Amino acid sequence: MEPSQTEQPPITELTKAQRRVLGVLVEKAFTTSDAYPLTLKALTSGCNQKSNRYPVVNYDEDDVAEVLDELRRLGLVAVIHTESGRTERYRHYLRRRFTFTEPQLAVMTELLLRGRQTLGELRTRASRMVSIDSLGQLRDELRGLQEMNYVQASGSLERRGVEVDHNLYPPSEAERIPAIAVAEAPSFPATASVETSATDSNPILAAPPLRELIQRVSLLEQALEQLRTDSRELREGQELFDREFRQLADRFDELRRDLGG
Fold first, then answer.
1. In a domain, 196, yes or no
2. What are the helix (H) ranges across the chain?
3. Is residue 175 part of a domain?
4. Alpha-carbon dihedral angle through residues 43, 44, 47, 51, given to the nearest 10 degrees
């Protein structure tokens, strides 16, 4: 019998292997519902796949089975017996253990599978599972997760280039996102106005131009980060298109074989 939610303490941390196994179960529940709940073999394959995972791992079925036992004790996973009784399958119970909205569940799943991401990357990836119409909607969902202490960020969610991550790391990992450094203009005393004479060939820059230069550098850094984010999103989109195209091609070949073509 699986433990009830009331018997379980709050979930505040998960190991690397627990995060990977749990993330795969939720992802596959969203994206391949016809094959869900998952067999141990399918779950192990999902943990080891090279796309949409970081870092890439190489678990065997014994590794995954051990983690499943841990997650069952936490009330996060249940075993399902098929009608034939020959194959055990596994499903997640995150909706029972957490008060996540569906977009929040998709967001947490992507963070469990890949860790730290920019908002643009996170929206693209989480939208594979649940529609997230805009960055504004994503920010609203992330604020809710921040209030519950399940998400951390490198700065204000309104800032371009801000990164977010889940907050379920155990103390041994101590994974924290460093805050984005904000360039601050140096302060000058009110009496430190600089006057330059006509004979001075190397006049010292006054405070206002220096502040303006710092602001311009900051804007250029933000623009560069946005270009990097756009490039990553395009690459992710291409990978998703290629994967779906291959799946369609495989299904077409199977259909043609079934029809004797």
1. no
2. 16-31, 40-48, 61-73, 94-97, 102-114, 119-126, 135-147, 207-258
3. no
4. -90
Long-range pairs of 189-193 with CB within 8 A, sequence gap ≥ 24? none
Cβ proximity of 127 and 137 under 8 Å:
no
Q: What is the DSSP-derived secondary structure letter of residue 201?
A: S
End-to-end alpha carbon distance in the chain: 49
Measured in residues, the chain has a length of 261
Is 98 in contact with 8 (CB distance < 8 Å)? no
Q: Which two tokens stand for residue 129?
A: 């599972």
Among residues 63, 97, 131, which one ends one of the domains?
97
Q: What is the pLDDT of residues 155-208, one digit of tens each?
A: 999 998 999 999 999 998 866 666 554 433 344 444 444 444 444 444 443 444
Domain span holding position 130: 102-166
Q: Is the pTM of this model over 0.85?
A: no
Based on the fold, state whether residues 63 and 10 are members of the same structural domain.
yes
Number of separate domains in the chain: 3
The letter for the amino acid at 38 is L
- The residue that leads in pLDDT, 206 or 259, is 259
Tokens of 105: 């569940």
Residue recorded with tokens 């999902």: 46
40-48 helix and 16-31 helix, angle to the nearest 10 degrees: 110
